[in-house]
Amino acid sequence: MNIDHVTLSYDGSRNHLENVSTIIPQQKITTIIGPNGSGKSTLLNVISRNHKVNSGIVTVEQKDILTFKPKEFARKLAIVYQHNTTPEELTVEKLVAFGRVPHQSFMKRQTTLDDEAVDWALTVTNLLDKRERSLMALSGGERQRVWIAMALAQRTAILCLDEPTTYLDMYYQLELLDLVKRLNDEHGLTIVMVLHDMNQALRYSDHIIMMNDGYIVAEGTPREVVTAERVYDVYGVTSRIYEDDELGTVMLPISR
């Protein structure tokens, strides 16, 4: 996926993205970080065609994403949002099955291929034993996994996640991010996600994009991007960056 000189303004008062260009590496985990209002979720929404840019272009497989038909694009990229709502009496399996809609024609019944995709999505998200449960019977972490399973059922090469750990406690945050890492390692998915927690970004990412005020401040490997100088310049926080034998690069905030 290529993002080429993208500029976006919601209201004309200021540019929420300003001449943003980058390449999302295939079969890697890319995490977009930055303070509130930096443009990270806006960029993810541009990638997923939820925002139309004022100028510039985003391409997938060397084709402008705006030229894809909706179902065609939904077979290329899936997204899981920060806030998801659906009737709570809906079962896990029925919700996940909605991920097959981009592969189905009007009035066509679910096929064996659809069933296999749903089973696979439930398996990799560890939800097979909960397929008949209603969403209201699940924990917050389990519900988030159901939404990821629905996105996986689309069988796309690219998966976007907008702040997937929001509202989850520490256990479920790690459970979900371990799942993301496994999806990348074992199934080769290209993953683009927005995270607030910098240490989670450092631990789970191959490629980091740091944003501020609608610009890309820096991008590259976690160690290249996250420096004490940049954390201070972008977040206004004094920090210490060090290497841990088990955890890798760690950012310790010291003071405002």
Q: Which key features would you list for this structure?
A:
single chain, 256 residues, alpha/beta, 4-stranded antiparallel beta sheet, 12 strands, 32% helix, globular
Description:
This protein has helices spanning 40-47, 70-74, 92-97, 112-124, 140-153, 170-187, 198-204, 222-225, 228-235; strands at 2-8, 17-23, 29-33, 55-60, 63-64, 77-80, 158-162, 190-194, 207-212, 215-220, 238-244, 248-255. It has 256 residues and is an alpha/beta fold. It has a 6-stranded mixed sheet with strand order 6-7-8-3-9-10, sandwiched between helices. Strands 2-1-4-5 form a 4-stranded antiparallel sheet, covered by helices on one side. α4 runs antiparallel to α5 (140-153) and α5 packs parallel to α6 (170-187). 35% of the residues are buried.
**Spatial shape:** globular
Largest sheet, described in full? Answer: 6 strands, mixed
Mean pLDDT figure: 94
Structural class from helices and strands?
alpha/beta
Helix content: 25-40%
Strand order of the largest sheet: 6-7-8-3-9-10
How far is the N terminus from the C terminus?
36 Å
* Individual helix count: 9
E-strand count? 12
In terms of DSSP E residues, the strand content is: 25-35%
Give the uncertain stretches in residue-range form: none
Cα-atom radius of gyration? 19 Å
Compressed to H and E, one letter per element, the order equals EEEHEEHEHHHEHEHEEHHEE
Write the layout of secondary structure elements.
Blueprint: E1 2-8, E2 17-23, E3 29-33, H1 40-47, E4 55-60, E5 63-64, H2 70-74, E6 77-80, H3 92-97, H4 112-124, H5 140-153, E7 158-162, H6 170-187, E8 190-194, H7 198-204, E9 207-212, E10 215-220, H8 222-225, H9 228-235, E11 238-244, E12 248-255
Parallel strand pairs: 3-8, 3-9, 6-7, 7-8
Antiparallel strand pairs: 1-2, 1-4, 4-5, 9-10, 11-12
Helix pairs in contact: 4-5, 5-6
